[in-house]
Design brief:
Chain lengths: ~160, ~375
């Protein structure tokens, strides 16, 4: 088993480059973000489209897509994907609903409805989406050699 | 580049109710130019052995949205048309400009007369000033800026438009003024370049189709998406409409016990009424003067001047005055006097639809 140390992860995150795949490492990871827009067609129907973040404004809906691929010849197991939320982004749910979240900077984890937020006056209240600081997925399934997967979550630009 | 959204519809329905609870830093949202850097890490094992953690990240910048509102200031007495008197200068109308951009902005201001059928504005032009914040309300010495410099995101400022009223303006007439605010680039001293979609020397609005994740683009988010907002306020003339009527009645004569006649030795009371028409503005500082010195055959009866008298049947042949406040005949001690053959008196303020009178008595020379 590996030990999860939040501080170390944050340090690494700061030093890593965008979307880089390391040939020497067996697991490849990429992170992409899209802006969700409602587009009204000529017949009046509204459809949602995802586009690259060309123009991003407060209140825009974002879709983050994390892709992972096992590039080695052996199965990978005990995958834990951790994504600290950028400060200007409010969490707005995941596609699969299997995530754990943290509302205290990655110290404690759980599903959102089990977490409490400590108020300044000592009282505590149920955590809300706007309190989420980190998201992570613990994948129980082994990732076979050559196979890949995708995790998706939503956010709103504060 | 777009891709259709299929996977996320379920998640969307699940989370919509929470959006209202967003605790954004401020209403205008994340500042323009802020990096949104998303980093994801993965821990994993191969063959039961922990491997080096992998990470990936993605960065883009929050763009600039120029949006603002300009409305008539409706707080308290500032709401509605500003009341003005004929010939009054620098009558103030009030507007509120709010910057809801996610960045500070400058605003150019201009005011025009937009509806003035009776030409109640005297044609000398409107002046526009910005509240300095030192003292609330328009202060000629303080509020001298003619454009809005560096209005921070989410901040509001009061704008004053000053107009001069023509002497010919009549009670109830009104005029509209339209204030126009145009967004300009903040940051430097003075008014920055104007934000626009075209125009030499302007700060251009970005093409929506540019793929530019690193830079900060600018778009309009205001009504009409043009960086220009208008608001209308107005003036209404509220002046006093006074009418004066003088009547006389014989109080007594030396011979009759009833129905006195205007015979020599009789006492006659003059009643001068001042009526302010219904709906007119309060009339203030009303002074009456009646030169009786030139009238042959009568003599002022000392100690008979009353101001603020109650008037019955005002403006008609049967008008009479009664009551009121007694004043002395001496000069300078109170609101009335008799000097140089002139009876004079000052009346209290007269509201629209009410009447006050001045009364005094003379003797028909015996």
């Amino acid at each position: 088993m590996i030990t999860y140390i939040p501080k170390a992860i944050i340090m690494m995150a700061a030093t890593c480059m965008t979307g880089t795949a390391y040939a020497a490492t067996p697991l490849q990871l990429s992170s992409d973000v899209y802006v969700e827009r409602a587009e009204t067609s000529a017949d009046g129907a509204t459809k949602l489209i995802l586009e690259k973040p060309t123009t991003v404004l407060p209140g825009d809906n974002l879709v983050f897509v994390v892709k992972y691929t096992n590039a080695s010849n052996e199965p990978a197991s005990n995958l834990m994907v951790t994504n600290p939320l950028p400060k200007p982004v409010q969490f707005n749910g995941t596609a699969d609903g299997n995530e754990q979240v943290s509302v205290d900077g990655g110290k404690t984890w759980g599903s959102l409805n089990t977490l409490l937020v400590q108020e300044a006056d000592g009282t505590s209240r149920s955590a809300q989406m706007s309190d989420v600081t980190h998201i992570r997925w613990e994948l129980s399934q082994t990732l076979a050699a050559g196979s890949s997967g995708k995790l998706i979550f939503r956010g709103i630009v504060r | 580049m777009t891709s259709k959204l299929k996977l996320l519809v379920g998640a969307s329905a699940l989370t919509c109710s929470i959006i209202g609870g967003t605790s954004a830093a401020h209403a205008a949202g994340t500042d323009a130019g802020v990096d949104i850097n998303n980093t994801v890490t993965v821990d994993f094992q191969v063959g039961g052995v922990g491997q080096t953690q992998q990470s990936a990240s993605d960065t883009f910048q929050v763009d600039r949205v120029i949006r603002f509102t300009l409305v008539e200031d409706t707080t308290g007495s500032r709401g509605g048309d500003s009341s003005a008197s004929p010939n009054e200068d620098d009558v103030v109308t009030f507007f509120t400009l709010t910057n809801t951009s996610n960045e500070a902005a400058d605003f150019d201001l201009s005011a025009t007369e937009t509806a003035d059928a009776n030409n109640i504005l005297d044609g000398t032009g409107l002046l526009v000033f910005v509240e300095s914040g030192a003292t609330p309300g328009y202060q000629a010495a303080e509020d001298t800026a003619t454009f809005v410099d560096e209005l921070a995101a989410d901040d509001s400022v009061t704008i004053y438009v000053l107009g001069d009223i023509a002497a010919t303006a009549a009670n109830g007439q009104n005029a509209d003024v339209t204030l126009t605010a145009t967004a300009h680039v903040a940051g430097a001293a003075g008014l920055g370049d104007q934000y626009s979609t075209s125009g030499t020397g302007d700060a251009l609005i970005s093409d929506d189709t540019d793929v530019n994740t690193a830079g900060v683009e600018t778009i309009f988010g205001d009504t009409g998406r043009d960086g220009v907002e208008l608001a209308v306020d107005g003036y209404v003339i509220e002046s006093a409409v006074l009418s004066v009527f003088k009547s006389s009645s014989v109080i007594s004569d030396p011979f009759s016990s009833a129905n006195p006649k205007a015979v020599p030795g009789a006492i006659v009371e003059y009643c001068i009424s001042v009526a302010n028409a219904s709906g007119a503005a309060l009339a203030e500082s009303i002074s009456l003067a009646d030169n009786i010195g030139g009238i042959a055959g009568i003599t002022f009866e000392p100690g008979t001047i009353f101001v603020d008298a109650t008037v019955a049947n005002a403006g008609t042949a049967t008008q009479t005055c009664s009551g009121g406040t007694a004043v002395t005949d001496a000069t300078g001690d109170d609101a009335g006097e008799f000097a140089g053959g002139i009876v004079s008196g000052d009346l209290s303020n007269i509201a629209g639809g009410t009447t006050l009178g001045l009364r005094f008595r003379v003797e028909i020379n015996p």
